[in-house]
Amino acid sequence: MTTGNAFLFLSAFLASAVEMVEALTIVLASALARGWRSSLAGVGAAVLALAAITALLGPALTAIPLDALRLVVGGLLLIFGLQWLRKAILRASGFKALHDEDAIFARELADAEGAAHVERAGLDWYGFVLSFKGVLLEGLEVVFIVLTFGSAQGSIPLAAAGAAVAVVLVAGVGVAVRAPLARVPENLMKFSVGVMLTTFGIFWSTEGAGAHWPGSDLAILGVLGFVIVVSLLFVQLLKRERLEAVAA
Amino acid sequence: MKWLARFARFWWDFVVGDDWLVAVLVAIAIGVTAALAHSNVTAWWLLPVAAPLILWLSLRRAIRSA
Fold first, then answer.
1. Chain A to chain B Cβ contacts (< 8 Å)
2. pTM of the complete model
3. How many domains, chain B?
């Protein structure tokens, strides 16, 4: 496996794991408050919708010339990566609260328990829609990363495999513990995904724009190291700023 | 029309995210890289310089608005 493919697999795995931890919280709250049947039907419908989107967009992306694809995909990944990094840095430096799956679970559970019972097609509609929306919305970002990252690297199946391993792992652990996965180091995973998306975003959009990297593909490692160092530096700078603000 | 507006809004939020300035500045930086590259000027360094600056600007905006 080349370095690029290893990063591809790892990025898809981490992004998928983070999003699935969040989806699991919603599905569990829905299942416990409204029943497993409707909630699992919602999960199934969302998975089908995500598969349809992947099947429609995947072949379309592979038909685009590589340079144009890398320019557009690189730009989108860079925007995505910087957004993920911003959130992760704000959380790591204390400017934004860490994602608390337990608190989100309690809130979703209370909302689901308080909602009126409406039955459609033999299903509790609230439970179905809550699970469907949760999995679809969290899953869309994963589909986007898998398709863009996979097509630009020339291996959508490898990216899909990374995402699938994460889905199976998170779902398996979720079924085993039947509680939100609050102990998953979510921010560290988000930080890692942000770093990788930003790295590949910089690399591919530069190539797509017609510029050439010194060292060709090996430059990815240099960009990766640079993005990690800069991001950690920003965390330290903001941590110090926050401590000074609290002390003042 | 309401459905179309919601659909457009969803994709705007999905792609552009919390800070529209990031998307705009990334597009400008890529455009400048392409312009330099097509004028036979070495341009690989531009995005590695621009990305941290855009990130820092976005972090400052997020902290200011918090």
1. 100
2. 0.80
3. 1
